[in-house]
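Sample entry was shown:
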Amino acid sequence: MATRKTVNLLPQQFQTDINKKFLNATLDQLVSPGTNSVLNGFVGRRDVDNFKTTDSYIVETDNDRLNYQLEPAVTIKKELSQTKYDFATTYIDIINSIEAAGASNYNHDKLFSNEYYVWSPPIDYDKIINYTKYYWLQPGPD
Protein backbone atom coordinates (compact mmCIF):
# COMPACT_ATOMS: atom_id res chain seq x y z
CA MET A 1 0.00 0.00 0.00
CA ALA A 2 1.12 3.50 -0.74
CA THR A 3 1.78 5.90 2.08
CA ARG A 4 -0.61 8.83 2.09
CA LYS A 5 0.98 12.26 2.26
CA THR A 6 -1.04 15.03 3.87
CA VAL A 7 1.27 17.68 2.48
CA ASN A 8 -0.34 17.07 -0.94
CA LEU A 9 -3.63 18.33 0.50
CA LEU A 10 -2.11 21.75 1.19
CA PRO A 11 -2.02 24.56 -1.37
CA GLN A 12 1.26 24.81 -3.27
CA GLN A 13 2.55 27.84 -1.33
CA PHE A 14 2.25 25.89 1.98
CA GLN A 15 4.12 22.79 0.76
CA THR A 16 7.43 23.88 2.28
CA ASP A 17 10.13 21.59 3.66
CA ILE A 18 9.25 22.55 7.24
CA ASN A 19 5.57 21.70 6.71
CA LYS A 20 6.52 18.43 4.98
CA LYS A 21 8.67 17.38 7.94
CA PHE A 22 5.99 18.37 10.45
CA LEU A 23 3.15 16.62 8.62
CA ASN A 24 5.28 13.54 7.99
CA ALA A 25 5.96 13.25 11.73
CA THR A 26 2.36 13.87 12.82
CA LEU A 27 -0.59 13.60 10.46
CA ASP A 28 0.84 11.17 7.90
CA GLN A 29 0.96 8.46 10.56
CA LEU A 30 -2.72 8.99 11.34
CA VAL A 31 -4.01 8.85 7.76
CA SER A 32 -1.78 6.04 6.51
CA PRO A 33 -3.31 2.55 6.48
CA GLY A 34 -2.29 0.38 9.39
CA THR A 35 -0.68 -3.01 9.25
CA ASN A 36 -2.98 -5.85 10.20
CA SER A 37 -1.97 -9.33 11.13
CA VAL A 38 -4.38 -12.23 11.25
CA LEU A 39 -4.31 -14.29 14.44
CA ASN A 40 -5.99 -17.64 14.68
CA GLY A 41 -6.03 -19.23 18.09
CA PHE A 42 -7.56 -19.41 21.53
CA VAL A 43 -7.02 -17.16 24.53
CA GLY A 44 -7.92 -17.93 28.12
CA ARG A 45 -7.38 -20.63 30.68
CA ARG A 46 -6.01 -24.01 29.80
CA ASP A 47 -7.14 -25.77 32.97
CA VAL A 48 -10.74 -26.29 31.85
CA ASP A 49 -12.62 -29.49 31.07
CA ASN A 50 -12.79 -28.95 27.32
CA PHE A 51 -9.05 -28.26 26.87
CA LYS A 52 -7.37 -30.26 24.13
CA THR A 53 -3.63 -30.46 23.64
CA THR A 54 -4.14 -29.99 19.91
CA ASP A 55 -5.79 -26.56 20.40
CA SER A 56 -3.70 -23.65 19.23
CA TYR A 57 -3.37 -20.83 21.75
CA ILE A 58 -2.02 -17.35 21.15
CA VAL A 59 1.51 -17.09 22.57
CA GLU A 60 1.76 -14.51 25.35
CA THR A 61 4.80 -12.40 26.12
CA ASP A 62 5.10 -13.23 29.83
CA ASN A 63 3.69 -15.59 32.46
CA ASP A 64 1.38 -13.01 34.06
CA ARG A 65 -0.39 -12.41 30.77
CA LEU A 66 -0.55 -16.14 30.16
CA ASN A 67 -2.05 -16.91 33.57
CA TYR A 68 -4.32 -13.88 34.05
CA GLN A 69 -5.26 -12.64 30.59
CA LEU A 70 -9.04 -12.95 30.98
CA GLU A 71 -9.35 -12.42 34.72
CA PRO A 72 -11.93 -9.93 36.00
CA ALA A 73 -10.96 -6.30 36.20
CA VAL A 74 -11.74 -3.68 38.81
CA THR A 75 -14.03 -0.87 37.72
CA ILE A 76 -15.40 1.96 39.82
CA LYS A 77 -18.43 3.61 38.30
CA LYS A 78 -19.62 7.15 38.94
CA GLU A 79 -22.96 7.49 40.67
CA LEU A 80 -26.05 7.84 38.47
CA SER A 81 -24.07 7.34 35.29
CA GLN A 82 -24.55 4.66 32.69
CA THR A 83 -21.26 4.80 30.80
CA LYS A 84 -18.65 6.82 32.70
CA TYR A 85 -16.12 5.22 35.00
CA ASP A 86 -13.91 6.85 37.59
CA PHE A 87 -11.36 4.06 37.54
CA ALA A 88 -10.78 0.85 35.62
CA THR A 89 -7.84 -1.53 35.77
CA THR A 90 -6.94 -5.13 35.09
CA TYR A 91 -5.79 -7.80 37.50
CA ILE A 92 -2.24 -7.64 36.15
CA ASP A 93 -2.13 -3.86 36.74
CA ILE A 94 -3.22 -4.36 40.37
CA ILE A 95 -0.44 -6.88 40.92
CA ASN A 96 2.12 -4.59 39.27
CA SER A 97 0.94 -1.65 41.41
CA ILE A 98 1.43 -3.72 44.55
CA GLU A 99 4.97 -4.56 43.43
CA ALA A 100 5.70 -0.92 42.53
CA ALA A 101 4.62 0.12 46.04
CA GLY A 102 7.31 -2.15 47.46
CA ALA A 103 5.16 -5.07 48.58
CA SER A 104 5.68 -8.69 47.64
CA ASN A 105 3.34 -10.02 44.98
CA TYR A 106 4.81 -13.51 44.86
CA ASN A 107 1.86 -15.32 46.45
CA HIS A 108 -1.41 -14.07 44.96
CA ASP A 109 -3.49 -16.35 47.19
CA LYS A 110 -2.04 -14.68 50.26
CA LEU A 111 -2.72 -11.22 48.84
CA PHE A 112 -6.41 -11.73 48.14
CA SER A 113 -7.52 -14.62 50.37
CA ASN A 114 -8.88 -12.68 53.35
CA GLU A 115 -11.88 -10.40 53.42
CA TYR A 116 -11.09 -6.98 54.80
CA TYR A 117 -13.60 -4.41 55.91
CA VAL A 118 -12.88 -0.77 56.59
CA TRP A 119 -15.31 1.10 58.79
CA SER A 120 -15.34 4.83 58.28
CA PRO A 121 -17.93 6.46 60.51
CA PRO A 122 -19.61 9.62 59.22
CA ILE A 123 -17.88 12.02 61.59
CA ASP A 124 -16.13 15.33 61.06
CA TYR A 125 -12.53 14.66 62.10
CA ASP A 126 -11.75 18.36 62.33
CA LYS A 127 -14.31 18.77 65.11
CA ILE A 128 -12.83 15.83 67.00
CA ILE A 129 -9.21 16.95 66.68
CA ASN A 130 -9.75 20.71 67.08
CA TYR A 131 -12.58 20.58 69.59
CA THR A 132 -11.31 23.69 71.42
CA LYS A 133 -11.97 25.86 68.37
CA TYR A 134 -15.68 25.02 68.34
CA TYR A 135 -18.46 26.24 70.60
CA TRP A 136 -20.56 23.33 71.78
CA LEU A 137 -24.21 24.02 72.62
CA GLN A 138 -26.12 22.06 75.19
CA PRO A 139 -28.96 20.04 73.73
CA GLY A 140 -32.41 21.20 74.67
CA PRO A 141 -34.67 24.24 74.42
CA ASP A 142 -33.22 27.74 74.05
